[in-house]
Amino acid sequence: MAKLRNLAPVFIFISSYLPLALILVVKNFDSTKYQSLLSWHELYSLLSSNFWGNFDLLEFSLPVKNPLLVCFIIFTPAVSLLILCWILNEIERCTGVEIKIDQTKTLPTDIANYSVPYIAAFFSLDIGNKLEIISLLIFLTTMFAISYKSGAIFFNPMMIILGYKYMQATYEDNSITVTDNILSKHKIEINEKAYAVNVSGILFITQKDN
């Protein structure tokens, strides 16, 4: 569990681009297949037992251009999100180290870095062009490295959606006063005790002392 927990930043980063994947899929709809898919006849066939009885996976095609690549683009962040939710659930169940929080300060979440690929998707990105996909992967890999090394990986839209707040906290750990960044789904009160788990240099507040 500890090794998988250390991979949380990777899953956080990948899952944050699930909306981008959906945008790219919509942009690559095949209009002819799309109209056929939405017809009442096709919908009825889809829901009928006859359809499933005659269903052939090898002959089935998605109503998009580049279906295999589209499946990969959707599958990767979607699975990453599921794994991330599982990891976060396991972290929340950990007891962690007891600390006493003396002061907190909410940090602004900078999502500008995550906006650049979305802007590219709306303008000229063509997932049918291999060179453009390779360029995007190089760009995202570079962004991940910079975000991870700077500790900004947790300044992430997906963490906001999942209910986490990014804060700077001053707390007492074994009678030593420490100022550090924390992530928490819980409401933090001053001078209260809490339990924290260190994940890649960031403290996750897992429980509050009731």
Any overview of this molecule?
The protein has a five-stranded mixed β-barrel. It has one domain. The model is unreliable at 49-60 (pLDDT under 50). 21% of the residues are buried. It is 51% helix and 20% strand. It has ten helices and five strands. The chain is of the alpha+beta class and 210 residues long. The chain crosses the membrane at residues 7-26, 67-89, 133-155.
What is the topological layout?
Layout: H1 2-6, H2 8-15, H3 18-27, H4 31-37, H5 40-47, H6 49-53, H7 67-93, E1 97-106, H8 112-123, H9 130-150, H10 157-161, E2 165-173, E3 176-184, E4 192-199, E5 202-208
Parallel strand pairs: 3-5
Antiparallel strand pairs: 1-2, 1-4, 2-3, 4-5
Helix pairs in contact: 2-7, 3-7
